[in-house]
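To the team - protoporphyrin IX containing FE complex, inputs and output below.
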Amino acid sequence: MLEYLENTEFSEWARGESLWGWPFALTVHALGTAVVIGFIFIIGLRLLGFFRTIPFTSLTRLFPVVWVAVVFQFLSGFTLWMTKPSKYLSDWAFIIKFSLVCTSLVVTWYYFNAMRRETPEWEAKGVVSPRGYKFVAATVFLWASVLVAGRLTAYLGTLYAQ
Ligand code: HEM
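Output:
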């Protein structure tokens, strides 16, 4: 099946038959990375006490933008992956990056739901709960790891080894 996927017209386009496939998918992937990680950091910084004019209760409105960017990450990531699926699936660096993406998504989902429930109370008291700080630490650390692992996939694993 992987061999079939690798030889579709779409994969050939993504591999660079047209010169546009890989650069286009990588550009979308880079923009999506900026949105996901940028927004997670803005939310985290607000909970840590920066940008005090932004109410805690309005932060949950940033999450739908993150979910939309994640959809673009899956579409563009899948396009990049289609260029050599079997190589990616046997590359430890890609497997680590993909596992980090899945873990980060699950933790971010719980973060979002916790914020929906708890921000009115944080707003009223003017303090974030210890659980809120734990979510900030976990999401910032996990998403930063996705970024580094994604960038290093090309250098650490076996994908482009000479
Ligand atoms: C929010 C989630 C994600 C983030 C933040 C992310 C981040 C990154 C980054 C920073 C790179 C390096 C780009 C470069 O070389 O400049 C990358 C590459 C890549 N990503 Fe993602 N990614 C995400 C999700 C995904 C998903 C879901 C897939 C697969 C379906 C995927 C597949 C790939 C592939 C195949 C590459 C190219 C690796 C290479 O050959 O060097 N990514 N990603």
